[in-house]
């Protein structure tokens, strides 16, 4: 087994980094941009819901073409559609809030196509021996981008004032997407797989399959991710009314995340997954508690730093364990696209349920205390992920 990254895996990391950079520059402030036009949590929630629904459907439907045809085409197509989304936002301007569902679907399709192709290629260029290392580097890259991207965007938006700053940042993201497309042509063309089995995700849920543990674990992970992905930066802006504060928040939390992911990538081993994931799941829930007393920049910063510090303990085991299942046998390797689709559909269900719960509960009790208690409840769902997947983690640890 390989214990280091080869040229293709490093190149894939670079393409991933550019895609994430474009999203960090503009995506960090996209919901803030919408909020400044219409201050409505429900509208932001439905925008997120439409993205998540389209992303999951794109995974399932495009799985056939990704498996049976050139994966690189769909990797590039995902980048192109994501760029088209920001082009339409530039065109629509403040009227973007009137097109929440179609724009959300477009953004979700672009993200779905990219991440489906990326995850398949990621599996093909790594193995059990270097998968934690690759994930650690993804975390490091994401942290570096999180340090520089949102801080730069926040500074530009604050200096240029009004919509002009947002238009500049959205334009820069279009350019970064273009560079990512060019770089992707240096990735080798991957071998095509056999026929795509539409019902394979359902067949994997039969009795005795380890996916009966991985699927609920992934769904529980999605419960938290779906809401926290759009809510945190928005709360920072609501608490401070300053885009540069959002950039500063991302700078600090990503700096902490850089160190924690570097340390996890260097020292975290398979034998630590069982205990490490539980510890991480509990601690990223505990750091939410200060927000129950008051939501301000200080308590949000405490939450952000704590989450960044402990997230690798939780995240690396659940990602690596699921991908290890895909490489468990020749049959699972052959059906890797369908299994990656299964993982994403599981997470989509969790994301949709979490977001829908947020929308409905907040509509029933539209108060900030509702938001914070929902954060605590959804923030504790990683413990459910550990409960669901603990036997797989234990088996892997014992084997290691």
From TrEMBL:
<protein>
    <submittedName>
        <fullName>MFS transporter</fullName>
    </submittedName>
</protein>
<keyword id="KW-1133">Transmembrane helix</keyword>
<feature type="transmembrane region" description="Helical">
    <location>
        <begin position="299"/>
        <end position="327"/>
    </location>
</feature>
<feature type="transmembrane region" description="Helical">
    <location>
        <begin position="165"/>
        <end position="187"/>
    </location>
</feature>
<feature type="transmembrane region" description="Helical">
    <location>
        <begin position="12"/>
        <end position="35"/>
    </location>
</feature>
<feature type="transmembrane region" description="Helical">
    <location>
        <begin position="348"/>
        <end position="365"/>
    </location>
</feature>
<feature type="transmembrane region" description="Helical">
    <location>
        <begin position="275"/>
        <end position="293"/>
    </location>
</feature>
<feature type="transmembrane region" description="Helical">
    <location>
        <begin position="41"/>
        <end position="61"/>
    </location>
</feature>
<dbReference type="InterPro" id="IPR011701">
    <property type="entry name" value="MFS"/>
</dbReference>
<keyword id="KW-0472">Membrane</keyword>
<dbReference type="Pfam" id="PF07690">
    <property type="entry name" value="MFS_1"/>
</dbReference>
<feature type="transmembrane region" description="Helical">
    <location>
        <begin position="246"/>
        <end position="263"/>
    </location>
</feature>
<keyword id="KW-0812">Transmembrane</keyword>
<feature type="transmembrane region" description="Helical">
    <location>
        <begin position="222"/>
        <end position="240"/>
    </location>
</feature>
<feature type="transmembrane region" description="Helical">
    <location>
        <begin position="99"/>
        <end position="122"/>
    </location>
</feature>
<feature type="transmembrane region" description="Helical">
    <location>
        <begin position="73"/>
        <end position="93"/>
    </location>
</feature>
<feature type="transmembrane region" description="Helical">
    <location>
        <begin position="371"/>
        <end position="389"/>
    </location>
</feature>
<dbReference type="InterPro" id="IPR052528">
    <property type="entry name" value="Sugar_transport-like"/>
</dbReference>
<dbReference type="InterPro" id="IPR036259">
    <property type="entry name" value="MFS_trans_sf"/>
</dbReference>
<feature type="transmembrane region" description="Helical">
    <location>
        <begin position="134"/>
        <end position="153"/>
    </location>
</feature>
